[in-house]
């Protein structure tokens, strides 16, 4: 379920110190982006932040909740997004610290992705 407009606006306000935060529907959920990089996902008005090996220890508290997941061919696939503890919404500085750690993880993930393939016509124009 995508984020409600009220919840989306609340998140944009809370995370404004990060930069330009946008939310958009994706696969029945809502992707959260900061300056074009996906740092979180919202489903059923619950926020999940991107986690990787470098911020996993800082997010240890979030392990108390199941990670964001989906079912595929009868198996549950865990995604690299962990639920943000509700208490952080009462601790704005700590919420921003977690969001910055999630954004750093999102940048690391984006840097590891191969560059998108170009069409032959685009390659030929670049050579000219």
TrEMBL record:
All copies of domain TfoX N-terminal, residue ranges: 13-106
InterPro entries: TfoX-like, TfoX_N
Region described as Disordered: spans on this chain: 109-128
Alphabetical list of PANTHER family matching this protein: PROTEIN SXY
Protein name: DNA transformation protein
Organism in which the protein naturally occurs: Bradyrhizobium algeriense
């Amino acid at each position: 379920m995508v984020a409600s407009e009220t919840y989306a606006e609340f998140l944009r306000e809370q995370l404004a110190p990060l930069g330009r935060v946008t939310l958009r529907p994706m696969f029945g959920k809502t992707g959260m982006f900061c300056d074009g990089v996906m740092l979180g996902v919202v489903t059923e008005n619950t926020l999940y932040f991107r986690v990787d090996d470098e911020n996993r220890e800082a997010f240890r508290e979030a392990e108390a909740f199941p990670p964001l997941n989906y079912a595929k061919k009868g198996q549950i696939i865990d995604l690299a997004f962990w639920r943000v503890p509700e208490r952080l919404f009462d601790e704005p500085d700590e919420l921003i610290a977690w969001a910055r750690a999630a954004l750093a993880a999102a940048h690391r993930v984006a840097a590891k992705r191969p560059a998108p393939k170009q069409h032959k016509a685009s390659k030929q124009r670049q050579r000219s």
